[in-house]
Predict the structure of ABC transporter ATP-binding protein.
Amino acid sequence: MTVDFLKIDGLRKSFGGIHALQGVSFTLGAAGIKCIVGPNGCGKSTLFNVLTGVLTPSAGTATLAGRRISGLAAHKVSRMGVGRKFQVPGVLADLSVMEHMEIALAARATGGKVWRTLRWRGNRAEAIAMLDEAGLADYGDKLASQLPHGIKQRLEILMLVARGMKLLLLDEPTAGMTATETQATIDLIRRINQTTGAAILVIEHDMTFVRSLACPLIVMMRGEVLREGSYDEVRADPHVRAAYLGDRHA
């Protein structure tokens, strides 16, 4: 039986007269993957902002493993195991790939406590093993400024895993990638899900990526969930086709 690891119930968020979220409800099972698709302005990023504590909902709740996360401060949500990757890579140009991994591992091991972090001796072996598993072993000594775009994106996803995050929120993780880089990212997401059991929620516009990832979809329109289902079910829905997908995805 699938356990509702993430449960979103009637989330609403208004900015004056603008209703960005209008009663969004869905669940994500333990170790599950779902993609959220929808046009710009449909509420996808607002939803992620609510789930990470950047915004407080106007109404409704979001719970993680039975514990409420909606309305909590961002740092508290992060400590509960919710990690977000933004569309634009947030890596530091003057640090190496290995240094990025060691920082992420230190955050997990010390809980972000300053004195514990200063005393932490590091775990280079674990960082090397994670980079090797993700196909990034050859980049360990490279500065982030030297990395191709696709490698930066994969590194940032891997850092969420190194931090021990239980729910990964990935915002357009393949934006600006080549077809080869996109496939490598799909492979990484699948591997992370299978080996760590992390639940993953992805915002994506690239329907080729969505089809290849082969996970359930959530279609959002005007701050609401319009449809849930498989890629084929969503593609065949006349309301979705008219509102978002269009004839090119027939």
